[in-house]
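To whoever is on call:

I kicked off a structure prediction for a single chain this morning and the downstream step that reads the tokens threw a length-mismatch warning. I double-checked the sequence; it's 231 residues and nothing unusual in it as far as I can see. Pasting both halves so you can look.
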Amino acid sequence: MLDIRDIDVFYGAAQALRGVSLTAVPGRVTSVLGRNGVGKTTLLRAITGRQPVRSGRMTWEGQDLNRLRPEARARAGIAFVPQGREIFPLLSVRENLETGFALLPRAERRIPDEVFALFPVLKEMMGRRGGDLSGGQQQQLAIGRAMVMRPRLLVLDEPTEGIQPSIIQDIGRAIKFLRDRGDMAIVLVEQYFDFARDLADDFVVMERGQIIRAGVRADMEGDAVRNLLTV
């Protein structure tokens, strides 16, 4: 289980997160919602070790995350699909996927069949450069690369941003498949309310670096949560 308790994060003198608490457990999707600039990406950067935590506690499977560097968190089973995808444009699809091998024992260095079952276009484009793929295909590649690591915690930052509707559906099906497998906790940052609502088992809404509402999927029905996201 991911257990975050009362974390504060600063960028210089500016406080980005204030007393944020969150949990994520295997077999469930925790959706993090909020307008632009409220601290959602900062929260994910704190979880993955890209941004230090000033105070508070984060544990994953009993380990103190505050003491682990980003690469150690990846070895501990935390995979990150960043906003903007961050694939390697000059590497082939195959080579992009194989970058996930770095943290695996040699005997496990293979691309899982489920990557191609969920995203068959990747198998068709194994020799294509990552930079030649469409935005939606690059997003599928970024998720596939994370899956190669066999994560137990998958952290996704706005995977629907700038993606065509048909591929949004594919991404949604992939997240549901990984959740329903039951061995992976998922934290999903999303601005597209309907997408988040359909996937969420648990949710939090952020405003100005704080969590202002939290609950389960049933609490997201109606306009109450949607209104909190309206500019």
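Update from on-call: the warning came from a stale cache, not from the record. Cleared it. Sanity check on the structure: The chain has a mean pLDDT of 93.
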